[in-house]
């Protein structure tokens, strides 16, 4: 099918020609209820409700949806579908099921999470049932075990490198928006409010900070430990009670495991800055994430399976696993800091700050996020335990 941007009419026509999807939806095409629910920065999303079932359709646009002047290659949909196929066997029930991918339309058709809510919105509205972070920890540990050099024969990592190294357009977004723009004058950065200008100037001139950011850029671009989700923020997670699903794997790339961990924790930390009265809950979620992630990864690595460490007897592998997890912890702290800063002063900011009751509260929340972010970036390489990470966040 030749590429064209779908509206509800064109999508209905296309769906009606897909026997597997019409069976799933049931009834006649004219009876299906189709509505656009696009919410993210990049793509259009439609929910289609038939008489027997529903599907979610996500199409890549040739530009950034929220910035139409910013061209963006369509291939991100291919990488997202590839990511879903790659990790699905390891994370059954933790992501939507992929039903179909149309290579010409750059269209993903997947399970419709009708009753789920985006985690960021659920947190803001105080509707998130505690315990979601333990599921995310499990999700990250399982994707690492299934795709990382440590958990699999090296041929698996080599194949994944080939399959995902072409996802350069979205990796470019991450390199620019997460690791570069907040630390330089750049027209993509929104004009900071007056009270934040001094903080932003410091971000752009602190040599020590720039060296630490440079180190993290190097880790992100050269450490190929496992297949990352690549954009694991609280807007990439959906909840329905205790049913937790990870969505939006279009930024998938081989990279350092601490990147996924850091982005997730960074978004919880941002929520905490905006809603300091939720300290106990957020601290608990952060700890639950790290416990489930590190315990599950440690247990699976102790069993072996990869070529890495194959020489060490099962009994002595513990030392290597311990130092590997420490490296992940240090990366996690640094990437968490980068995420906090870019979501506070960069192109793609977060709605959590709308929780602040007054302008002054919001300014203080943002300043706190910038301060914690810088500390995590600079101190990250010397951290020894997850408690150290929590302490740097004032927890
Ligand atoms: C131009 S895309 C901006 C941001 O939205 C995505 O969700 C990623 O987080 C990206 O950095
Ligand atoms: Mg997204």
Automatic annotation (TrEMBL):
Homodimer. GO terms for molecular function: ATP binding; S-methyl-5-thioribose kinase activity. It comes from the Bacteria. The keyword NADP does not apply. It holds the Pfam family APH. Keywords: ATP-binding, Kinase, Nucleotide-binding, Transferase. This is S-methyl-5-thioribose kinase. It comes from Gluconobacter kanchanaburiensis NBRC 103587. Its EC number is 2.7.1.100. Belongs to the methylthioribose kinase family. GO terms for biological process: methionine biosynthetic process. Residues 34-265 form the Aminoglycoside phosphotransferase domain. The lineage of its organism: Bacteria, Pseudomonadati, Pseudomonadota, Alphaproteobacteria, Acetobacterales. InterPro entries: Aminoglycoside_PTrfase (IPR002575), Kinase-like_dom_sf (IPR011009), Methylthioribose_kinase (IPR009212). The gene is mtnK.
